[in-house]
Amino acid sequence: MGRATAGSARRSRRGSAAASSPAGGSRRGRGKKAGGPAAGPGAQTQPPGPGAFDLGAQSGRWAAFQERHRLSCEEAARLLLDAYEYRGLVKHTGGCHCGAVRFEVWASADLHVFNCNCSICTKKQNRHFIVPASRFKLLKGADNLTTYTFNTHRAQHTFCKTCGVQSFYTPRSNPDGYGIAPHCLDDGTVQTIVTEDINGKEWEKAVKEHKTIRDMSKP
C-alpha cells in the first residue's frame, strides 16, 4: 500500500509538473515554429514557382475570360501561350495525295525552303522548310505512315503507305524538328517562297558551315 501510494504520487507529480510547466509547452511550440522562415519586418516573399499562377491585378480579367469562353485554366493558358509564341506565324494545313495523312503546322507565310542535292533528296525532289516539333501536329494517318532510312539512319523519311507521298519527314540536320514539303500544303496560306540550295553531297561540311539551319528547329 505504502509503495503503491508513493508511486502514484510520483507519477501524479510528474504529470502535474508537465501540465503546469509553461517551459514544456513552449519548447514544443518553438520547435514547430522553427521549421519555417520568420516573417519579420522587411521580409521578402518568394515568387511563385513554375506552374503557379500569381495573376495579381489581372485575376478578375482572367476569371471573366475563362467564364466568357467556357475554358478551363489549362485551355486558357494554352490559348495565351499559343498567341504569344506563334505571333507572326500562320497555320498551314496539308497532307499526302490520297488524304490518309493530314497535318497542321505553324510557320511564316513567307517560307524559306531548302533544295538539297544529296542522293535521296534529288531522287524525291525533297524541297522542304524546317519547323520545331512543337509547331507541327499530325491530325490523322499515323497508322498509315511508313519510314525509310539509310546510311546513318538519322533522317526519318516518312511517307504514306497508300499513295507514297512524303509530305513531311525528320531531317538528319534537325532531328528535333520536321521538314515540311511546301508543295504538300493546302492553297491560301503561303505568300512567298525563297529557295536556298544546299550541298547535300558534302552534307557534314554544308551543315557545319551553315549559320542558321540548326536553329530552325528550336522553339
Nutshell version of this structure?
The chain has 219 residues and is α+β, with helices and mostly antiparallel strands. 31% of the residues lie in helices and 22% in strands. The protein contains six helices and ten strands, in the order ααααβββαβββββββα.
Description of the structure:
- By secondary structure, this protein is α+β, with helices and mostly antiparallel strands.
- It has six helices and ten strands, in the order H-H-H-H-E-E-E-H-E-E-E-E-E-E-E-H.
- The strands form four sheets. It has a three-stranded antiparallel sheet, with no helix packed on it. A three-stranded antiparallel sheet has the order 4-9-8, with no helix packed on it.
- Strand 8 and strand 9 form a beta hairpin.
- The longest helix is centred in the first third of the chain and has 19 residues.
- The radius of gyration is 33 Å and the shape is elongated.
- It starts with a helix and ends in a 10-residue tail after the last helix.
- The N terminus is likely disordered.
Strand content: 15-25%
Give me the secondary-structure category. alpha+beta
- Helices, by number, come to 6
- Residue-averaged pLDDT: 81
What is the string of SSEs from the N terminus onward? HHHHEEEHEEEEEEEH
Low-pLDDT stretches are: 1-39
Largest sheet: 3 strands, antiparallel
Features:
219 residues, 10 strands, three-stranded antiparallel β-sheet, 6 helices, alpha+beta
